[in-house]
Amino acid sequence: MTGDAAEYLVTQGVLLVGIDSLNIDDTEDWSRLSTRPCLRRVCRSSNICVTFRAFPNASFASSPSPPRSPASGAGRCGPLDMSFRQTTVSGFPAVALRSADLEVVAVPSLGMKLTNLRRRNGREWLWRSDQIPLAPARPGASYVETADSGGWDECFPTVGPCPVPGAPPDTPPLPDHGELWSAPWSSSVYDHATGTTLAGTAKGSVWPYEFHREITLDKDEPVARFRYRLRHTGDTPFPWIWSSHPLLNVQPGSTLALPGITQVRVDAVHGRQDIEPGDVVSWPGTFGEDPDGFTFPEEGGWAAKLFGDIVPQGCMTLTDPRRGERLEFVVRPEEVTQVGLWINCRGWAPAGRTPYYNLALEPCIGAPDRLDLAVTQWQTAQTLHPGEERVWSVELRLSEQ
pTM for the whole thing? Predict the structure, then answer.
């Protein structure tokens, strides 16, 4: 947009400007940033919304964020007091949300994967693989072989690959880690009175549904609120489970507390002989001596996938005592019924790779990871009926000890 065009909008009394391009300025001509003071007068009283599509990886060029304006509030990026900016992650177009306390980075073209979650000037909570780089998603491919690069994905309508419940034997199976990580998403980001929100929507292919996620960074507190909405858009009921899938960066000495949870059920285990899939064992006593939580060990060599039922406290806490930081998940047990724990103490990786050291702390609805087993054995799967809508939320608080 030229300076003359911006001045014309002001003289006509325009209060909201929408664009359908990567940048309202020519990214090759930074002199047009001089139009921003004029545009500030246009947009001062309006919410700002930018819509992100699936940018072609080869042709997108991320522009640097504009310089901070003296009039910008704390934590806001750029002269329009906007708390989001375009960036890149490993060459993929990304959007960074920023509040006074937190930063979250998402890659829309990779299933809306979150790659960064941290306090400003704090430690990075999301684990990143040094063996599997970020790469374009391939529907139907093995997630653990091609997309287990770290970060936060959403898994629906299954986590583990499995047969479609109730379908004929020749029906293609449900994909590894579900459909959403490899699905195209539409997304938008906007400022509002209480913070900044990144919204994304994907549609199902195996079954007819619309999956919607909103992430809001609170303007005043170190809190990220995840709001989910699932809507049936077809004519036939279908079963489902959902799991958040944040792979978290832990080190020996990190502690995991699940207040009120005293037992967990084993779904998978590697490198241990004292527990087996299907066992119900005490938490945290089976895994260490600390009665208040699990402390990640110096020496491991084992991995396990565990599930616990959410109790009224609805709280799960990961602490890094070395950095003095804490990550707390809070859910409503009437909405989010289980929590999945993938504790990997250098006990597992796909064949040919070095075992990982990480944690997946996963508020979820339904267990175990395979939908068919959630239907037939654990009987925790949900059923979505035509026209039905389900909503739930997860709150994250990033704080200092």
Answer: 0.82
